[in-house]
Predict the structure.
Amino acid sequence: MSEAPAIRVLLVEDDEDVRLSTIQVLTLAGFEVEAFASAERARAHISFGVPAIVVCDVRLPGMSGTEWLGELHTADAELPVILVTGHGHIAMAVQAMREGAYDFIEKPFSSERLVAIVRHAIERRQLTLQVRALRDALENWHGIQAVLIGRSAQMQQVRRTVMTLAETSADVLIYGETGTGKELVARCLHEHSERRRQHFVPLNCGGLPEALAESELFGHEAGAFTSANRVRVGKFEYANGGTLFLDEIESMPMAVQIKLLRALQERSIERIGSNKAIPFDCRVVAASKDDLKDMSDRQKFRADLYYRLGVAFIELPPLRERREDIPLLFEHFTLLAAARYERAAPIPSSAQVADLMAYAWPGNVRELRNVADRFVLGLLGERLTQVRGSAEDVPALPRGLPQQVESFERAVIVETLRKHQGDQPATASALAIARQTLHDKLRKLGIAADEFKA
């Protein structure tokens, strides 16, 4: 989140001896303190968003602490108010807790207990004000900034590239790991282009068999094959005038790649079972989680199609490489989830924010959104990233330097194996290490290369 604001303590105590001793305790603990003898004198220092907490005696001359509590929360409902009470007034303090007081402490109190309660209240106030600042930032963002969220240099560059390419009709290739938001970027390209009034047509190429992929892309005539009972309009025709988004294009069958290349070159298609050329006018945006250049070098993807698609590139950074965006994104997803589930948006503790910042996020933004949903529903404990049932259990980054080095080494090797589909010689070459060195590291780190084979 943004830098935590400095929070001062507004102390309201009519007993001068207690007031002076409390000031001394809090000042020695490192807190900035302003003291008042009555609620009336402290009133002028309270407003919405004031960077302060209140420590207030229950019994005061004039307006009591419990009476003032309502006025304070009218000014700012999230202002932490700690009530100080004598032994005979505990029931009154408990009732005040029900009405929104942050905590209460009974006289005579220990310095350690007072400091602990004040410190927790200050942490809560800092987080509240940080979250408000994030909400204001989100509300003040418009257009593409409100969709492709992030203050990092990487996301600023992504937004600039999207806006530049949106003004053209060029086909675009988007690279990014699973969950980085490739379809969201494709939709932004469409929504900020002259084609925005026409269809945005997505097609996931992953797992589509050859026959079905052809029918989906190009359509078919009635009677073209056994189950073709009527004419089907393909995605290219349906996207005419708009944008066709081909996700996971690395999975497209080779035979279909040939026909796709021809369609892109001629800007026309033929339905299955027809010889008639049907022209189309749409922008094609393709997305891949794998390096298509590397795949084409290994003859896993057609090089001519790669060069035809790769007129313009957008590369999306994984979330772990733009950690400064995590609090802003988490706040955004928390607010969306709170509205969807009709619940109040909870505020993460400082430990929870630190947990979010340290986690490796293998599922990227999609995983972060899932955690925000579960957080709003109250399904998570103090450790937000210990999510049961996730596809991949990746712990927070270890603290020690050797452990961090090993964690980084493991991540690099796993990612390279994934890119090369478990091919150990190709992986060793890409990492610029000997094959035996790679073999030793796989054994040491407990990585099974066979798991990455296609």
